[in-house]
Amino acid sequence: MISLSYYPGCSLTSSSAFYDRSLRKVLTFYGVRLRELEDWSCCGAAAAPAMNEDLADVLSARNIAIAERSGLHLLAPCSACYARTKAGALKIAGHRRMRELVNETLAPMSVSGSVEVKNIIEAFLEYVGVERIAASAAYDIGSIRAVPYYGCLLTRIMDVPSSDDVEDPSGMDVLLNALGAAVLPWQFKTECCGAGSTVTDSDRTAQLSGRIMTMAQKAGANVIVTTCPLCQLNLDLTVHLRRDLADIPVFFLTEIFELALFGSAAGSKHHLISTADIEGSVEILGGDSA
């Protein structure tokens, strides 16, 4: 049994709670036990560093300190949470002055930056493995023509070495191929969806996310797959902001795992763009339609 400490972050306990449930279900299937951080708090995401860098450091350091108590690597599936926490851990470990600052603020808690922070793609590749994933598929998802969408943040964390190619990442591609989906090449893997501008400038999000949806359609995709809660929400919202776009469902990576393992995604009712046609095309391997 593999154990990881787990930081769901704000999105996975609110608007993207179905991502949290999907992730837990799939990792449990593979024998990966998640130990959610006790009394975790917001990491600050993109807002805190824009206002006060010291505040952002302390916010991420608090969760890292809690994770260090377990002695386990830390899984942060949200791209923003992963970016803040990964950068924070490396900064704490490598800068004595910063470490002194956060420890003074957090006392009696303390942090060293020793925890390794993983995103969900890294967790599947490192703790489950491609061969096991390929062997575990019980349903044929070959009807899925997927474009993997990593978003602009996952591989571009400032001052943090990326575990994948910065401009043309492939980790999610490998996982989707192993599950049996048809993965299509395209040039918009890491384009920005508009991020938080949805709240202040919905036209901007409609433009940026709309371009991603259009290019996915041109690539021949019937599914977009992401690991980022904000990316999923923005792309899912786009057809309500722009009526000229194709209704391409936007799945979380773990939901594609659900389709391949169990024949359906439990959180499908929470999608704004219907996933019914995709789920209806899934067939049990060697048997009848699911």
Account of the 3D structure:
The protein has helices at residues 17-29, 47-51, 53-70, 79-94, 96-106, 120-128, 130-136, 171-179, 197-200, 202-218, 229-241, 253-262, 276-280, and strands at residues 2-6, 32-36, 74-75, 117-118, 139-140, 145-149, 182-183, 223-226, 250-252, 283-284. It has 290 residues and is an alpha/beta fold. It has two domains: 2-118, Glutathione S-transferase Yfyf (Class Pi), Chain A, domain 2 (Up-down Bundle), CATH 1.20.1050.140; 133-284, Rossmann fold (3-Layer(aba) Sandwich). The strands form three sheets. It has a four-stranded parallel β-sheet with strand order 2-1-3-4. The chain has a four-stranded parallel β-sheet with strand order 7-6-8-9, sandwiched between helices. α11 (229-241) links the parallel β8 (223-226) and β9 (250-252). The radius of gyration is 19 Å and the shape is globular. The mean pLDDT is 93.
Residue-averaged pLDDT: 93
- CATH architectural name of the largest domain: 3-Layer(aba) Sandwich
- Radius of gyration equals 19 Å
| Strand order in the sheet with the most strands | 2-1-3-4
Broad CATH class of the largest domain: Alpha Beta
What gross morphology would you assign? globular
H/E series: EHEHHEHHEHHEEHEHHEHEHHE
**DSSP E strands, number:** 10
Low-confidence stretches: none
Summarize the structure.
The chain has helices spanning 17-29, 47-51, 53-70, 79-94, 96-106, 120-128, 130-136, 171-179, 197-200, 202-218, 229-241, 253-262, 276-280; strands at residues 2-6, 32-36, 74-75, 117-118, 139-140, 145-149, 182-183, 223-226, 250-252, 283-284. By secondary structure, it is α/β, with parallel strands linked by helices.
